[in-house]
From TrEMBL:
Source organism of the structure: Bradyrhizobium agreste
InterPro entries noted in UniProt: Glyas_Bleomycin-R_OHBP_Dase, Glyoxalase-like_dom, VOC_core
Ranges for domain VOC: 8-150
Record protein name field: VOC family protein
One Pfam family named in its UniProt record: Glyoxalase_3
């Protein structure tokens, strides 16, 4: 039976080494980037968000080493920059944590936290969240998963931040590289009570729930065949590899991306070396 308190992908977390440089890089790629947020001293991290509808991307960096961010630091040391974890939307994080506990998994949390937010009119408010994580060891394809309950959606989904020069509208797929796509997809499907299906090229897709983006597990060879001509330098054979983004206007996408754009099939891509370790593939809506 599907989880009642957890629905599909909420946001993708891209770990970066230099938070401010990463934000500027994404601005140069035509994204509207939020003001910088700073998390609690316990978390020791800061972020910038790139808001879509109904999901978003988060650029996350470690500002001060803490016990809490040790897994994130280990990820960067091991893999470099890239997609480190994926969040689901939680309707109720406390109830969601109990749902996975009833399935024999020990949740981390739920944990309440907040960060200051500068609103478009210059006033300061707060974005407040309650999250829980699946056990750290339960990371299909090397990507951790957690659920995020937004207690103040109005301070996160701000209309001015949701318009992008590159016409990005939402996430269609999260692509995770692995030598064993079927095995990793089955692992995720078990964790979130969904069914995996095999794609024509041997990759494996797991719907995340609702109308949200799908997870796709595939080998680096399969990824290269899906996006011919796109250099994949820097991607690990196991871990978050790419985000497929729906564009409202591919001509605008190509103009905004400038020299970073690589045409591949029916889409326009940014190689991972130019997007902080994440292949970005823009496709028509």
């Amino acid at each position: 039976m599907a989880l009642k308190n957890v629905i599909g992908i909420d946001h993708a977390v891209v770990m970066v080494k230099d938070l401010d440089k990463a934000a500027e890089n994404y601005r140069q790629l035509g994204f509207t980037v939020s003001p910088r947020g700073t998390h609690s001293a316990h978390m020791g991290t800061g972020n910038y968000t790139i808001m879509f509808d109904p999901d978003y991307m988060e650029l996350l960096g470690v500002l001060v080493a803490t016990e809490h961010n040790a897994p994130a630091r280990a990820f960067v040391e091991r893999h470099g920059e890239g997609i480190e974890r994926i969040a689901f939307t939680a309707i109720d994080s406390a109830a969601g944590a109990e749902e996975i506990r009833a399935r024999g998994l020990t949740p981390i949390g739920p944990t309440d936290f907040e960060r200051p937010v500068t609103l478009p009119d210059g006033t300061i408010s707060a974005a407040k969240f309650r999250t829980f994580m699946w056990p750290t060891a339960e990371a299909p394809g090397g990507v951790r998963i957690f659920a995020c309950q937004h207690k103040t959606r109005e301070t996160v989904w701000i209309p001015e931040l949701m318009r992008h020069a590159n016409a990005a509208r939402r996430i269609k797929q999260t692509l995770i590289a692995t030598p064993e796509p079927a095995k990793e997809a089955a692992h995720l499907a078990r964790l979130i009570d969904r069914e995996a299906k095999t794609d024509a090229d041997g990759a494996a897709t797991v719907p995340s729930g609702g109308d949200r983006a799908d997870f796709v597990y595939l080998t680096l060879d399969q990824l290269a065949k899906r996006y011919p001509g796109v250099p994949l330098n820097g991607l690990s054979e196991r871990g978050g590899a790419a985000l497929v983004l729906i564009s409202g206007d591919l001509a605008a996408t190509e103009r905004a991306l400038g020299s970073a754009a690589v045409r591949s099939g029916a889409g326009i891509c940014v190689p991972p070396a130019k997007a902080n370790g994440t292949l970005l593939a823009f496709v028509a809506g």
